[in-house]
Amino acid sequence: MIFPSLGYILDLTYLWIKAGHIIFVIFWVAGLLLLPRYYVYHQESTPGSQEERRWIDREAKLRNTIITPAMILVWILGITLATVGHYWTSGWLMAKLLIVVALSGYHGFMVGYGKKLARGERPVSGRALRIMNEVPAIAAIVIVILVVLKPF
Known about the structure:
Number of helices: 5
Largest sheet: none
Strand content: under 5%
């Protein structure tokens, strides 16, 4: 056969979309694990210092060049996978989506918190930030279990 079948092309495309989805999930979650740690170090720096300005710059770069674009691609590729794979009626996908929506909200909270820090506000303690740092890890664990085991 000279030309591959349409089914083969669709299967191959699905696998590339899936690979991209997994790659950007890794980028997103890694960034979300790193960002609260940056905030802890930022809060421990002297207000108005050169060190604080460097933390503000690092945080903005992490949010704007890695975390937010990765989250957008995770959503686009994930919706594509769910549509192509006909998973919209699957219980495990609905549970996963609920966690991804919550993780997206956490992402938004962290972005907003970074902007508050840049303005000199420090409304959350370093201890609270360290605890919040665990949210993406817990979400990732539950999501992987749902996707791999498909318990319902």
